[in-house]
Amino acid sequence: MTTAEQRLAAILPEPPPPLPPTALIDAVAIDEATAYVSGQVAFTGSGGPLLGRVGAGVSVDEAATEAAKATANGLYRLAAALGSLDRIERMLKATVFVNGTAELTEHPQVADGVSRTLLDVLGERGRHARSAVGVASLPLGVPVEVELVARVLR
C-alpha cells in the first residue's frame, strides 16, 4: 500500500523551493483546524512553469497538467507545514484561476487537473468544493494558479 506522500511524489517528484525568508506571505496559514494554502503555480525542481494563456498558445490539456503540478506543489507545502499529509482530514475547497482568452469556456476542464490530483493523492479525503475562475493575467504569465483549503487534524 502506498502512502499519500508516495502518490504525490509519483505525480511531481520534487517539492517546490521554499519561500524566501523575505516573502511577505506564508505558504500555508493554519487557523485552528483549517489550513489555507497560498496560490501555487507549477514550479518543478527542474524548472519554471509553462508560460502563456489558455486558448492562445497553451492548450486546455496542457493547462490541466499545469494545474495538477500546481496542486502537487500545494500538497507539498501542506505536508511541510503539517508534518504529514495524513493530518489532512479533508480537502474543503480548491480555487483555480485560469489565465485564458476571452473566448475560453473550458475552465472546468482545466480545473479537473486539480480535482484528479487531490483524489489521486488523498483518495476520498481529497473530495472538495471547487471554483474555476477566468482571469486576464496571472503572476509571471502562468496559465494557472491554484489555492487550496483543507480541514486538518490537530
TrEMBL record:
Domain Endoribonuclease L-PSP/chorismate mutase-like intervals: 35-148
Transmembrane region(s): none
Protein name (database record): RidA family protein
InterPro entries attached to this UniProt entry: Endoribo_LPSP/chorism_mut-like, RutC-like_sf
PANTHER family named among the record's database cross-references: ENDORIBONUCLEASE L-PSP_CHORISMATE MUTASE-LIKE DOMAIN-CONTAINING PROTEIN, ENDORIBONUCLEASE-RELATED
